[in-house]
């Protein structure tokens, strides 16, 4: 199956009709149909059955679809890399980070790096940790920064710091009179915090059990920054990482969570891919930026 045939097959699988697939690929319907028919002829079996104007995948199509998607992703990555080379972007540093370090650490690291290496192109991606791992494996990122060090064995996780939790209170909330809150203070309150099966939720759950309290968020979030609007709207207290500069948001009172758990900030690399010299220099800047950000946070607390 050639690259164009692969592209057409995946588009039809995702779109379900020739019309929608042709629109996705910006080609004519007859051209797409011809490529599809030619592909089936070469393979020696049908990929789709025509049922009431839609294309229903055959068992054979379903069998090869996952492999086709992996091949397509690899080709896309190759195209991006060859484009970078053609445009002279051989000095390119790709960093993927979960949202808190992307907002709190990378701006400082990138600023320091750019001052010393103005001609090296920087590329930042904000993503959940599962996507960061995939990007490191595929070569779409050389460095990752995440708030978890429980990674697969092919990913190196260097812990460069740790961070606790903060409580975001709606303006005028009675608990605002306290300079520090504990988990016990939050019992019975409407909480906005992380969904289950995430590192922060696990750490909070263990700490709550150890302290003999029960916490149950009434509003679950995937990323801490999304709590801001909910707290500002008065939907509850945000129990989130203390890494982000929360005091810059209006309509919030920020209080540290005392006697609470901490979780790691980890610098991630692939064990199977060598770092370029530029990657290594950026890694040093991320370490320094993390140390500086955590130091600033301790002073402000």
From TrEMBL:
<dbReference type="InterPro" id="IPR005119">
    <property type="entry name" value="LysR_subst-bd"/>
</dbReference>
<dbReference type="InterPro" id="IPR036388">
    <property type="entry name" value="WH-like_DNA-bd_sf"/>
</dbReference>
<dbReference type="GO" id="GO:0010628">
    <property type="term" value="P:positive regulation of gene expression"/>
</dbReference>
<dbReference type="GO" id="GO:0003700">
    <property type="term" value="F:DNA-binding transcription factor activity"/>
</dbReference>
<dbReference type="Pfam" id="PF00126">
    <property type="entry name" value="HTH_1"/>
</dbReference>
<dbReference type="InterPro" id="IPR036390">
    <property type="entry name" value="WH_DNA-bd_sf"/>
</dbReference>
<dbReference type="GO" id="GO:0043565">
    <property type="term" value="F:sequence-specific DNA binding"/>
</dbReference>
<keyword id="KW-0805">Transcription regulation</keyword>
<feature type="domain" description="HTH lysR-type">
    <location>
        <begin position="1"/>
        <end position="58"/>
    </location>
</feature>
<dbReference type="InterPro" id="IPR000847">
    <property type="entry name" value="LysR_HTH_N"/>
</dbReference>
<protein>
    <submittedName>
        <fullName>Transcriptional regulator</fullName>
    </submittedName>
</protein>
<comment type="similarity">
    <text>Belongs to the LysR transcriptional regulatory family.</text>
</comment>
<keyword id="KW-0238">DNA-binding</keyword>
<keyword id="KW-0804">Transcription</keyword>
<dbReference type="Pfam" id="PF03466">
    <property type="entry name" value="LysR_substrate"/>
</dbReference>
<dbReference type="GO" id="GO:0009089">
    <property type="term" value="P:lysine biosynthetic process via diaminopimelate"/>
</dbReference>
């Amino acid at each position: 199956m050639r690259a164009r045939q692969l592209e057409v097959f995946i588009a039809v699988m995702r779109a379900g009709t020739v019309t929608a697939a042709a629109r996705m690929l910006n080609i004519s319907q007859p051209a797409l149909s011809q490529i599809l028919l030619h592909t089936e002829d070469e393979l020696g079996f049908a990929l789709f059955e025509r049922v009431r104007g839609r294309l229903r995948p055959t068992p054979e199509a379903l069998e090869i679809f996952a492999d086709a998607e992996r091949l397509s992703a690899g080709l896309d990555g190759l195209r991006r890399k060859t484009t970078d080379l053609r445009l002279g972007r051989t000095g390119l540093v790709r960093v993927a980070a979960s949202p808190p370090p992307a907002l709190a650490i990378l701006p400082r690291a990138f600023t320091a790096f750019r001052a010393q290496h103005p001609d090296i192109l920087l590329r930042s991606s904000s993503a959940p940790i599962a996507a960061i791992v995939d990007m490191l494996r595929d070569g779409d990122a050389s460095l990752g920064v995440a708030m978890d060090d429980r990674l697969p064995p092919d990913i190196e996780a260097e812990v460069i710091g740790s961070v606790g939790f903060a409580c975001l209170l709606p303006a005028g909330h009675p608990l605002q009179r306290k300079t520090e809150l504990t988990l016990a203070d939050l019992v019975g309150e409407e909480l906005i915090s992380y969904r289950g099966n995430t590192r922060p939720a696990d750490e909070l759950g263990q700490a709550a059990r150890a302290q003999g309290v029960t916490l149950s968020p009434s509003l679950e979030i995937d990323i801490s920054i999304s709590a801001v609007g909910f707290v500002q709207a008065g939907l509850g207290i945000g129990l989130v990482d203390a890494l982000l500069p929360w005091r810059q948001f209006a309509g919030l009172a920020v209080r540290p969570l005392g006697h609470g758990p901490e979780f790691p900030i980890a610098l991630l690399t692939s064990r199977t891919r060598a770092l370029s010299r530029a990657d290594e220099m950026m890694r040093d800047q991320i370490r320094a930026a993390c140390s500086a950000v955590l130091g600033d946070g301790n002073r402000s607390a």
